[in-house]
Amino acid sequence: MAALERLRAYPVKGLDGIDLEATPVLEGGTIAHDREFALFDADGDVLNGKRTDRVHALDTDFDPETTVLTVDPPAGETRRFDLDADRETAAAWFSEFFDEDLSLERDASLGFVDRREMGPSVVSTATLETVASWFDGMTVEGARRRMRANIEVSGVAPFWEDRFVGEDAPAFEIGGVRLEGITPCGRCVVPQRDPDTGEPIAEFRDRFIQQREETFPEWADAAAFDHYYSLMIITRVAESDRGNTLRVGEPVEVV
């Protein structure tokens, strides 16, 4: 049976994710705590993994209850920052680490997601297992951390999520919360890097595209995909269902 296997938010854009047992859908259509905070330079440009592989040198954790961000740098002591009460101290520390003047901003109503008119990203566990099999030494957890999806669905076939984009695509519900596929997620440089070391896999993009084309499911609408360097989909939560809560273990049904 298809079920919500995992919920993952990324509290600070570009840094590590956290697993959640349940999370409300915000009025803006995203899940709570996802990209709630982001680092910006003096020109107003965001700092993320696309911009620098230095993000992989940091191990981070975030407690939604206390809003405390824990940072383990490659050298030095573990640091803890209360992002509700004292973001300036955190911003100063990150400025020193990344060697540029940064501010740490917050958007609790929508988050600093790339596609601000859309909602959670979705992938299946079987898709992650398949992608991991394409590359020597890649684990499923490694694939999960590379792809950085919000919602993971178990009990379905690889690339199950592809059926929800394109002309006449169905929608799906998670515990009664309706999600509609909007677009495939074209990938950037981040998935090719080891999430712990930042080291890239040689010829990752070429091998990924070849394997993706060879395994592209017959049920998917190829016209909805601009290219094969795409994985997972971006969805939109129905406005009538925003404010409701998604919970791990809830059934997933095609509608």
From TrEMBL:
Judging by the UniProt lineage, the source's domain of life is: Archaea
**What lineage does UniProt assign to this protein's organism?**
Archaea, Methanobacteriati, Methanobacteriota, Stenosarchaea group, Halobacteria
Instruction: Name all MOSC domain ranges.
Output: 87-255
Q: Which GO MF terms does the UniProt record name?
A: catalytic activity; molybdenum ion binding; pyridoxal phosphate binding
InterPro entries, A to Z: MoCF_Sase_C, MOCOS_middle, Pyrv_Knase-like_insert_dom_sf
Please report the name of this protein according to its UniProt entry: MOSC domain containing protein
**What's the source species for this entry?**
Natrinema versiforme JCM 10478
